[in-house]
Amino acid sequence: MIDRDISCLSNIGKARAKDFASLGIRTIKDLISFVPRAYEDRRYEKRLSSIHPGDEDRHIYCRIRITGKSSFIAKGRKVFKIDAEDDDQKKLSILAFNREYLERFLISGEEYYISAVINRLDKGRYETSSFEIKRTKEELGIGQILPIYPLTGKLNENTVRQAVRSALLSAEIEDTLPSSFYEAFSLMRRKDAFFSLHFPKDLQQAEMARKSLAFEELFYLELSALRTRGKKENRGKGRETELEKKLISSLPFSLTAAQKDALDEIRSDIESKSRMTRLLQGDVGSGKTLVAYLASLNVIAKKGQCAFMAPTELLAKQHAENAAKLLLPLGIKIAFLSGETKGKERRLLLENLESGNIDILIGTHALFSMDVHFKNLRLAIIDEMHRFGVEQMKELEGKGRNADVLFMTATPIPRTLALTFYANMDISTIKEKPYGRKDIKTYLVSERKREDMFKAIEVEFARSHQAYFVYPRIEETEASDLKAVTSMYEELKKIYPERRSRIIHSKLDEDEKIGILNSFQKGELDYLVSTSVIEVGIDIPKATVIVIEHAERFGLAALHQLRGRVGRSSLASYCFLVYSDQISEDGKERLKIMRNTNDGFLIAEKDLEIRGPGEITGNRQSGFISMKFADLARDYEIIKKAKLAAEEISSSDWGLLNAENTVIRKNLEKTY
Ligand code: ADP
Ligand code: MG
Question: How far is the CA of 642 from the centre of ligand 2 (A)?
């Protein structure tokens, strides 16, 4: 049985099983699903003549004949020396330390197979002291492609290969998709796929195998996502509480329709018995944070507590200040917690939290450290969720066992990918901008014409508006002519001798950054010179200009995020994207997209078209689903197919009642 513990395999004892467990491998199924990180192609012999001085890879594997044996003492140790030659009659000296049995095992004149790393190569004489010699080539994997696993700890590749092999032989691997799928989507049968994943005939076969398994994985993911969503229809509406009404009426503006819709969805989630896992996505400045505060009030009105987590201390502080302005007048008790909150202050805060004297706790991921206990945590809000790691998410899972969770992101993901990425979440989208918000005017500026731009910005300074100047690096390096923050800071001082500025980048400590931003916010500074640290969530209404140099270096999504630092009030705002002469045609096209639209969703779609999903999804979290076989960054084609197949099945046979689909029903119940 595929779900049995791996210790049932003959070559795995207690200690081994423990080593495997540290890799997360406990069952036969885990073991055969352990995806090699690479393969070593040993199909063809690699003989001595293929190694040259200075080669990085000095690995050989081939047949050898023993021509002589001797031993000598070096530095007080006995060294056993074997002379051998390969099929080209190239000569190899094999030096063995403490390997007595070899003396008996190796017989002069006989043939063996060797896998070795050549340590020395001098005038056609090859020498190795790190080698393995076997009677048959199978024992060394010669003639095969060998899997290389991502190992840590005590296990070595050979042990794992053997274990995988016996697991494959003992497991009953059944197909998990209807027969018709295998042909329709050119998939390998599941059993073949698992064998080929580990021991493929060639590298194409290995990739075919992985893709087949990825299809299955994605298909079930999509299908279960469709079903969870399907269930949620006829739900009751949540009520707007008095507290919410008070906040709304205290605002100088009214909510946008999109904010209202998102709130309705969230309220009804809070009302319902099942736990909310909802993603609130919307462009920078679309008013997500306000929606989050209203959701908090909904919970607080019902005597619940809220946690509001931001990815950096800086952002968390800003949220706390903002929350204080909006919520303190309503009598809401707010507290701020980060890793910096220590000693007596921390102790007091934690006491108050546990006794229910705090309604909303705002902070960094410190909110979910071991010693933090809420009296009645009902809602956890995670801002800029894609900046958190899976580990931090797990901590959160542990803390707020029953709490509803609202994730927020200002980095929209193209619709095609959203379902896969956020398969385990419901999604609310704010598409509309608050009324009166002007679109940011974006200009593309050639590096040679920066002077005019600098002059134009002076006009904004004269109106006491502020600016950001963004550069890709902190310091100039010899290897590149990219402009850097430190040198541009000096240059800008000469251009604007009257204006006050500061440098801000990730190497400064949090306190210093916060200090700088505070004085920027108070208008004590005219401009900031920065790396992309200001990318996330900084809200300074009087900042109306952002200059991004080497704009072609940034992805569209990043540019859009950066641009979102301005245009946060009713003042007209400007974004200058400065590009270098060497910009490619594609690069230019991409920047034109930025100039032509302010719509983050459209930009995300375009980015996907131009760069493929790799760049977009590469370094960000999915909805915290870990995939074994599928690679969300590379398997866009498979995602599309699996999604279509899941939609097709859902619409033609929702109940999975057709005989053909029984297998899907069974697996859906089992896995999800
Ligand atoms: P996000 O979190 O999506 O970046 P915020 O909630 O921080 O956006 O809102 C950005 C700014 O817009 C804030 O100053 C906020 O007070 C304001 N704002 C929010 N909703 C509206 C609205 N409906 N009309 C006008 N301004 C709004
Ligand atoms: Mg925000």
Answer: 33
